[in-house]
Design brief:
This protein is mainly β. The chain is built from one helix and 16 strands. The strands form two sheets. Strands 1-2-3-5-6-7-8-10-11-14-15-16 form a twelve-stranded antiparallel β-barrel. A three-stranded antiparallel beta sheet has the order 9-12-13, with no helix packed on it. The longest helix is centred in the first third of the chain and has 5 residues.
């Protein structure tokens, strides 16, 4: 029962480019469908969106996912439309402890509507994860990876190192899992405008994220969760993020 409830803690997709979660890959033939409403703000700017995600374990230890396909709208500047989404793959190298992953950003959204909608950038995010049940019902997940955006419109974004951790405690008697997480990003190389032979001196820029939330397992198949995330730093600036999710596990 604990493992099924723990699936409700699939909450790491708080950053703009993130894996499904930091935790154990389900059994072969299992999957999840998730719907999300999100809201982000940094006065006077704000944005909201709705999206759907899904994952399926095609063979033992190999999970494929399609994440965050949906619609978003922002103010100041105004923009709206269908958004970029992510195709992801995770493989359990050590099924009770270690995963490796590769995510691909699909630039489906219109960059002209603003970065909250689309980026016009193909990008990959790859790395590894470690997870462990520290004590009964207390689960820790840790991730480290590299975010590499490919050149587009004569612009190439600098390479970014990401590391994060999340911890959640499941109260089995009521199916509730409070959780908290942190993420740190560090830019390893400068942004470059190749056509102009110019670059921005922003290697060393960073970003810090902190989030708290809770997940509730309605039954062994359905769960709801929500969180608030605070972001600060040179990369993307400050913002506050809220989201609510409904998940169905099959």
């Amino acid at each position: 029962m604990f493992k099924k409830i723990a699936l409700a803690v699939a909450l790491v997709a708080a950053s703009s480019f993130a894996t499904w979660d930091y935790y154990k890959i389900p059994e072969a033939g299992k999957g999840t469908v998730k719907g999300q409403f999100k809201y982000d703000t940094d006065d006077p700017w704000s944005g909201w969106g709705i999206n759907v995600s899904g994952r399926y374990v095609v063979i033992p230890n190999l999970e494929l996912s399609l994440q965050s396909f949906g619609f978003a709208s922002q103010d100041d500047p105004d923009g709206s439309g269908l958004t970029d989404f992510t195709f992801g793959a995770r493989y359990a190298v050590l099924p009770e402890m270690v995963n490796i992953f590769l995510d691909l950003n699909i630039p489906f959204g219109d960059e002209g509507e603003g970065g909250y909608i689309g980026s016009d950038e193909w990008a990959i995010y790859f790395g590894g994860q470690f997870y462990k049940e520290l004590i009964p019902q207390l689960l820790l997940g840790v991730e480290a990876g590299l975010d590499w955006g490919f050149e587009h419109n004569d612009f190439e974004r600098g390479l970014v190192f990401n590391t994060g951790a999340e911890i959640g405690y499941t109260i089995k008697e009521i199916g509730l899992t409070p959780f908290a997480g942190i993420e740190f990003k560090y830019k390893l190389t400068d942004d470059e405008w190749n056509g102009a032979g110019a670059w921005e001196d922003n290697a060393g820029d960073n970003q810090f994220n902190l989030w708290i939330g809770a997940a509730y397992a309605i039954n062994e198949a359905m769960a709801v969760d929500g969180k608030i995330k605070m972001r600060s730093g040179d990369i993307d600036g400050d913002a506050t993020h809220f989201d609510v999710n409904f998940s169905y596990n099959f």
